[in-house]
Amino acid sequence: MPTRDDAWPQGTPCWVDCQVDDTAKAREFYSELFGWDIQDSPEEAGGYLMAMKSGKPAAGIGPKPEGMAVPSAWTTYFAADSADDIAGTVTEAGGQTFMPPFDVMDVGRMVVAADPTGAAFGVWEAKAHTGAGIFNEHGAYCWNELHTREYERGKDFYAKVFGWSYTEIGDGENFSYSTFALPGGKGIGGINDDTKMPGENPPHWLTWFQADDTDAVLTRATELGATVVAGPDDSPAGRMGIVQGPQGEAFGVIDPTRTVGQFPGQQG
């Protein structure tokens, strides 16, 4: 069971949470779907819920900001040594921050931003809360990927902000997809060119949760009021599907142990 207690290296996807209209309904849905033990936070946390898996923090659930008409969504957070420094780099690289960095009690300092293609993401400077304590395990996040119709612009932005390098695994014609890595590291997430896909989805970061049995999780999600919008499908990454939760938030489910074939860029 992969676990971590220390802060994550800067530029690593370190936390995920979802903002919804009804946190009580979300608590019921995700506890049933992933077996999370969803706990209340202190009153000053504003109704934020902490989802635990095997005694480790796995994800968060929170209410939407008051007075803001925003859709329910999962947010990917990237670790930062200094949220203030990264906020400045985001602006210099052509992105925007929605508000200045701020402290979250004694647990961390954060900022929410958008890249130049329009995808929102969070930046987390760890203090008492170091981020996800469990990952790459059933019911825990295992991958985070950007979906954008401005593929090269997105790659350039994140390279400037976090120093990512990229490995292209698509063929550049029917499928353009790059994994990203920290200097000297292995792939820790991906960027997808949505112009190669049907539909006109807005730019977004998609959170993928690992499953021991993708089909069973998709079936259970449907029983709990969610909608399966894609899959289940076999792929070189694993057997996967995409779910829209009962309140509209989208997330992926994947069993990475069930791979089929190779990505076009890996064939040789």
Automatic annotation (TrEMBL):
The entry's keywords: Plasmid
PROSITE patterns linked: VOC
One Pfam family, short name: Glyoxalase
Protein name: Glyoxalase
This protein's record includes keyword RNA-binding: no
InterPro entries: Anthracycline_SecMetBiosynth, Glyas_Bleomycin-R_OHBP_Dase, Glyas_Fos-R_dOase_dom, VOC_core
VOC domain sequence ranges: 12-126, 140-256
